[in-house]
Amino acid sequence: MYIPSYFETKERELSFDLMRRENFAQLITSDEEGLPWVTFLPFMLDEKAGPNGTLIGHMARANQQWRHFNEERLVLVSFMGPHSYVSPRWYETKQAVPTWLYLAVQAYGYPRIIEDDNEVASIMQDLVTHHEKPSPNPWKIEEQNSEYLERMRRGIVAFKIEIERLEGKAKLNQNKSEADRESVYKALSQNTDSHAVTLAEMMVELKMIKGK
Known about the structure:
- By secondary structure, this protein is of the alpha+beta class.
- It has a single domain, classed as Electron Transport, Fmn-binding Protein, Chain A (Pnp Oxidase, Chain A, Roll), CATH 2.30.110.
- Helix content is 28%, strand content 32%.
- It contains five helices and seven strands; from the N terminus they run αββββββααβαα.
- It has a seven-stranded antiparallel beta sheet with strand order 2-1-5-6-7-4-3.
- β3 and β4 form a beta hairpin.
- The protein is elongated.
């Protein structure tokens, strides 16, 4: 990922936070002929497994992408955070052009297929529990017939990716003047789009706006 130095986020916890919140990400691999493949998947992050954490996911067995996995070929998991268009009218500076502000994280590693049925079942349980937690009446995996669940488990390939390299980018006008950042922050915070509001909050969290 192209990351100018002023947009690079070296705080691992900031990257982890985005990966937890925006966990529906792109798994990107290449086949034997070099053709890129992309699948959108939900991921769980085990931040204590390995120096940079480990991603846990699964895909349909019918999806041939898992056959690209091997110990010598890196794969990429790309996470996209909040993003928003920025109008030149939002700047105090008169000479400006439109741009796009956003947060993103890219994780690289070597995937390992999980063969143990009990471990696969545990992964599915954790994923369901995580996403059902906000519900007032959470669905439980135990509600389904065990034979049906077994058929579903046989239809997926679960895997783990210990993260070898982690890249974080927060493009939040760090290269602009304090007056321009304040002006853009005000426009974002008053926007009706939730992504824009979140970006404004991130500008405060990263101490880019004085007095907030």
